[in-house]
Design brief:
This protein is mainly α and 120 residues long. It has a single domain, classed as Winged helix-like DNA-binding domain superfamily/Winged helix DNA-binding domain (Arc Repressor Mutant, subunit A, Orthogonal Bundle), CATH 1.10.10.10. The chain is built from 4 helices and 3 strands. A 3-stranded antiparallel beta sheet has the order 1-3-2. The protein is elongated, with a radius of gyration of 19 Å. The two termini are 29 Å apart.
């Protein structure tokens, strides 16, 4: 992934993880696998675990330790009401940004030599 892509992803990854958790509770590896299934192949598990710690500390998820057939219990994350508020905020911001970026991408061409900057 190019550096710009990586930086853009970092800015949206929390919202993406909250969106995954809005569909169903999951543990860290399931979230990472879900992201990879959606084409985010370069996501490191450590990145997701660090993000899960942050959203847990901010009170956006409820955590339950569930026994695992292999190894220690798994922490299963469930989006709670505060997390849903954060997700709603994320979607509002996403809509705002995507509309504005879409406007910038629209095929408008300024007249060469024009000092009119209203197209910016």
């Amino acid at each position: 992934m190019a550096r710009q892509d990586t930086e853009m992803l970092k800015g949206t990854l929390e919202g993406i993880v909250l969106a995954i958790l809005s569909r169903r509770p999951a543990y860290g590896y399931e979230i990472t696998a879900s992201l990879r299934d959606r084409g985010f192949a370069d996501i490191a598990e450590g990145t997701i675990y660090a993000l899960l710690v942050r959203i847990e500390q901010r009170g956006c998820v409820d955590v339950e330790k569930v026994p695992s057939e292999k190894g220690p219990p798994r922490k299963v994350y469930t989006l709670n009401p505060r997390g849903r508020e954060q997700l709603d905020d994320f979607w509002r911001t996403w809509e705002f940004l995507s509309e504005r970026i879409g406007e910038l991408r629209a095929p408008t061409t300024p007249h060469h030599g024009s000092t009119d900057m209203s197209w910016i």
